[in-house]
Amino acid sequence: MRIALAGLATSHPYTDARTLARHAELTVWEQDPERLARFVAEHPRAKVAGGLDELLAVEPDGVVLTVPNPQAPAALGAVLRTGAPVFMNKPAAASREQLDALDRLDITDRVLSTSVLRFAPAFAGVRVDPAEVLAVRATVRHDVGIWATGYNPWQDTPGQGGGTIVTMGVHGVELLVALLGPDVRLAGAAGAVRHYDGLRSEDTGVMALRWGSGITGTVEIIGVSEDEAYTVTVHTRDGSREIAIEAGDDHLKGLGYEGTVDAFLDMVGGAPSPVPWEQTRAILEVLISAREAVPTH
Fold it and tell me: Which positions fall inside the GFO/IDH/MocA-like oxidoreductase domain (predicted)?
C-alpha cells in the first residue's frame, strides 16, 4: 500500500505518519526544507517527491493533505482528479474565499476532513436522543502560545489559517455536530487576547450555536492552558452528562489519531468517508461565520 503525504504544514501529518508507517509505504512532499528534513529524520525509508504533481504521479492508494489553508482548495482539486481517497487535515477552510473555492469542487465521499476527536475512544460510541436534549456545550483547552513566538504565522492570521477561533474551535464544533447533525448555524461569537499579546488572532473565544430543532449550544475555546483536554456536556431535563476526552497514556489513541487513520485506511480499502461532507461543510460555515463576527486586532 502506498500513502502520499501532501504537505507537512502542521503537526498533524507527523502524528498521522507514525500510525500509517505501520501499514504502508510513505511518500512525502513538503515545501519547507526544515519541516521535510524533520520528517525524513523520523521516517528515513519514506520516498521524497519534488512537488505535488510528482507526488501524485506515483499513483498513491491514498493521500493525506496538509498544506497552508490558502493553498488547500487548489491542492484538493489536484488530488480529486486522481480519484484517490483523501484525508484532509482540519480545518479544510478558514476563510470565506477558501470555502467558496471548495464549494466549486466536486467533493465526493472519497474525502474525509475532520477533527480527530470525533474518533477518540471516549467519544466515538456516544449517542444522544436529540428529542431529550435541551442544550450542549463543548470546551476546548489547547494552548496557542507557540503562535506568539512566530511559529506558523499563517495559522494565527485570520484571513489565512483562521486563528484560534477556527483552528481550535473546529474541535468543539465538530463534536457537537457529530452528536446533533449539520442543521446548525452560528448565533453569535466573541474572542479576546487575555494572555498572549503577540497573537494575530485571539487566545480565548466563545461561539453560540442553534440547531434547526431549537437546541442551543456553546463552544468555549481556552487557548491559555497547561493541559490539552476537551469536554462535551449534554444538558437534559434529568441532568447533565459530561464526556471528557484526554490524551491519557497514549495520546495517539486517546485523542483519536489512531481511530482517524483507521477510518482513512478503510477508505483506501473502498469504504466511503465516515463523515459526510454535509457535516464538514456545516462545521466550516459555523467557524468562518464566527471568524467574520470576531474583530481582529
Answer: 132-240
